[in-house]
Amino acid sequence: MHKENKIVTRLKNIEREVINACKNSNRNKTTVKLIAVSKTISSDYICEAAKYGQVCFGENKVQEAAKKWPQIKSLYPKTRLHMIGPLQSNKVKDAIRIFDVIETVDREKVAIELEKNSKKYQLFPELYVQINLGEEKQKSGCFPINAKSFINECINIGLNVTGVMGIPPINTEPSPYFALLSKIAHESNLKNISMGMSSDFEKAIYLGSTEVRIGTKIFGERTIKKYDKNS
Question: In the list 71, 76, 106, 179, which could disulfide-bond 50, CB 3.0-4.6 Å?
Answer without folding.
Answer: 76
